Please model this.
Amino acid sequence: MSNLKNKQQSIFIVLVPLMILLSLWFYYMSSTSSWHVYKDAWFMMIVMAFGSFIAGASPEGGGAIAFPAMTLIWDIQPAIARNFSLAIQSIGMTAAAYLIFVRKIPIERKYLFLGLVGGTVGIIFGSYFIIQHIQPAYAKMSFVTIWLSFGVILLYTNIVKKRDTVTELPDLNNSEKIAILVVSFLGGIASSIFGNGLDICTFAYITLRYNLSEKIATPTSVILMASNAVVGFLLHKYLLNDFGIAEHNYWLVCIPVVCFGAPLGAYFISSKSRNLIALLLYAIIAIQFLGALLIVQPKGLLLFTSVIIFVVGLFLFYVLSKVTQHK
Model:
């Protein structure tokens, strides 16, 4: 009886904030007569129904689905796709993070704070000094290519090397903490370009460097990306003032979808094995890359650059997997 009561209380604690959010959303849509945005932006609901579930269930945030879909399929400008990705993840992944805390889903706290600090500095730095120098086609291909190389190495370590995993990190010395800060900083820069990146960067580093189980690293990465998305959204909305009408409309359309989709993904994956989580990640990475090849059809310098990124990524991730520490 007590277990049933605790479960009911947990559901109540989760649902109340979502109901408040939906009430505020409905009031805004009605008071501003904004229902017309569904006419042109309805397709994003379909994208984010899938994307938000993936955001909660994997180390790839919803932006990993939204950014490629928007830029590759609908040829939406990367800046719009990035702004939307950050905005919608600030809702969906924050809801998923809330569920993770409420249901006490295991996370790794030893690198959580370091990731929050490094990622915050990284997304601010990237937003002010990096994004204006990135060409759209190169942004699209580099995004899918670097994570293809990570997926290959993770698959290799799991299948060929039969990677033994741990459920917590060892005590970290100062140099290891600095390394995580640097990785998180680079992940924050990636988030400033693509709308996500901190989550998969920290996930890649921690799983390969320390053999942390995907089952622990995934919900931790969700929390990290939720914080990064909130910072990025507020940055573009109120400081950079480049959050436009298009991404605003996409955001409004998708809020009711992601506030349930991401927590549902986090809940679903919490009871699954780490092998299933890894399999889901492989599939996402492969689909992203194949989709990019079909739509962008890289040639010349872009193709050469993509190959170089893939090869360098393989080398770096392989080296990272070879320096695993157990203490």
